[in-house]
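Late entry, evening session. Most of the bench is empty. Finally got around to the prediction I had been postponing all week. Sequence below, unchanged from the version circulated by S.P.
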Amino acid sequence: MIFSEKVIFKNGYEEDNFVGLKYKKDKINIYLPLGYDKNLFNTEDNLSNNQKVDLLLLLKSISLVKSLNNERTAFGDDIGENSEIPFNSFIWMISDYFNNGLYQEIEKKYSQKGHGKINWKKTLNSEHYFSNNRVNYINPYYESNIQRSNLITELNNYCLHQSVNYIGFLFGNIVLPECNLKEIVVKNNIKYYISILNKELSKSFNDRKKMLLIHIKRILEMSYDNNFENQPTYGTRRYEYAWEKMVSDTLGSKIDISKYFPNAYWNIVGRKSEEDKSRLRPDSIYINKKYKKFYILDAKYYKFGITGNISDLPHTDSIQKQITYGDHIANNHETYGIEKNNIYNTFILPFNKKSDPFVTNDNIKYMGYANSAWRDKKEIFNYEKISLLLVDMKYMIDCYYLKDRFDMECLVDLIEKSSRNK
């Protein structure tokens, strides 16, 4: 089956929040996350090299959700009846081909005719004589390496063709060797091929070969469905976990934040006081050691940056939790070495800086703040106002993967902006 090169970009929030790839007979649909500008991709022409890099990074971010899915058995990343493609195996297969070519078994050939490198292990046992206190070998053994094609090479080639078939549009024109294995043959002999791969894995100590065998297995085990009853996909409906991971790793201080978790105790009559194990956990914390300031960051994958609707903002329960985090830090401020009024709170949401309703040249935009209606005294401390910041989605992905420097000075200045609105 050969997929069309026709690629269409869509907004994921318009398709049940799905982010990723969906394959159809005549096209490939790519669904983008909240805040990613689909106009960055010109679908009238072939993708430029920069566009391909951007798209690869975006699709790579989906693996952040997949890795969490492996850690959490009740993660709930169900995408229906679709058959998911082994996207990362496709990427590995193509990259390995660029770097190493097709896998070839190397076989040593020995001959007593010719010249080249002498194989001393064989030569030492061959016919020889002594002359002038030296050993002279009459017919030394020479060795040479020859490549021989085998089943692993053929499967490598087949899986390479499958990889280019599915995601070749991300790389451009790739010249491949002819593939002799047909899909129907692989389908009918899949159990045999898998058994061969497992045997090779059990006795292989070469790192490249082991990785190759693993990725070949993943590609061979793909569901075969020429009728597209199960639509091939690669993606997630839980992209919020990728957003939270990128915000946490990019903006948060590299510290163990567990000591900052608020907790509670049960005091049951006739029993010792026991701590409730389900502590509240902030998404991330940034500490400015120079100025001894403490910033509590909560990443929210909400639609406000796209719609501008108040209903698409964090609700009261989220606001309460942020204030509770601040209360906990404030009550232990001496332990943490921070003044109570140097604690700040913020929600961080995605947006597209090039699109309505919040068009701007800035990658980070201040939108206001949330406060409570239940505190006895209004906003004594700065953390009782939770700033609302929007961060451009592409900017966040670039900072996470390309290690571009995130503008932390701008970030903290905007977080503190709410405290200046007295």
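Two things to note before I forget:
Residues 61 and 242 are 6 Å apart (CA to CA).
Residues 240-420 form one domain.
Will write this up properly tomorrow.
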